[in-house]
Design goal:
WH_DNA-bd_sf, alpha+beta, 235 residues, cNMP-bd_dom, Catabolite gene activator protein, Jelly Rolls
């Protein structure tokens, strides 16, 4: 994580997402800009959050550790993803782990300041309640996806989301988190994941070379993926 002390960039993000409309009072002087590089953790499950975060640029995935020690994918975050709403209200440690899939810029309010200045801010509390309701719906949807959809569809959707810009020329799918990690996130065995990857190769959706897995038919991938893990933008 790196702190970016550039008030112009902070103000640009602040205005773009109309952050001032989330509060009854001006919070601009308390806003910081934090940058997380790819694969860095924006927060880790079980750790205290130092900041209340608004993800204003980039993409991240959120997953939770299950009682058996394995991790389960919950959703993907884009702008304007909110990190710390539950922890802000309950004053608890982070309830899940959020990992950057690309460079992520976050507007941040120190949590101790947020808990003092925003605990009675009706506009901000309403915003937080709406986002908590959306996250509850995401968890319910995630559970249904793992139960009702074949791994082929879930994997296609996962890969589709890993392609940060699906319409760009970048086609390599980065599995540097390890295939075992992907299998765990999707509630699959490692062998089942390999079989499913080979199935996508047979369908001419993926190809494999020394650099990894490459998407060779984005349209087929998108059709197979549907909207299972589709991240929502709130711009």
């Amino acid at each position: 994580m790196k702190k970016i002390d550039d008030r112009f960039i902070i103000k640009t993000f602040y205005n773009k997402f109309k952050i001032d409309e989330l509060f009854e009072k001006d919070m601009s002087d308390d806003i910081k800009l934090l940058r997380f590089e790819k694969n860095e953790y924006l927060c880790r499950e079980g750790e205290e959050l130092e900041y209340f975060l608004f993800l204003v640029e980039g993409k991240a995935k959120v997953f939770k550790t299950l009682p058996n020690g394995k991790s389960s994918l919950l959703s993907f975050y884009n702008s304007l993803g909110v990190i710390g709403d539950l922890e802000f209200i309950n004053e608890e440690v982070a309830s899940g782990t959020l990992q950057a899939l690309s460079t992520c810029n976050c507007l941040a309010i120190p949590m101790d300041i947020a808990r003092v200045k925003l605990i009675n801010d009706c506009k901000f509390l309403r915003f937080s309640c709406l986002r908590l309701a959306e996250k509850l719906a995401d968890i319910s949807t995630s559970s249904s996806i793992n139960l009702l959809y074949p791994l082929e569809n879930r994997l296609a959707s996962y890969i589709n989301e890993l392609m940060i810009e699906p319409n760009s020329e970048i086609e390599y799918v980065d599995f540097d988190e390890s295939l075992s990690g992907v299998a765990e996130n999707l509630g699959s065995s490692y062998r089942h994941l390999l079989r499913t990857l080979n199935l996508l190769i047979e369908k001419n959706i993926l190809d494999k070379d020394k650099l990894g897995y490459k998407v060779i038919d984005k349209n087929k991938l998108a059709d197979l993926a549907g909207d299972l893990y589709k991240a929502v933008y709130f711009e």
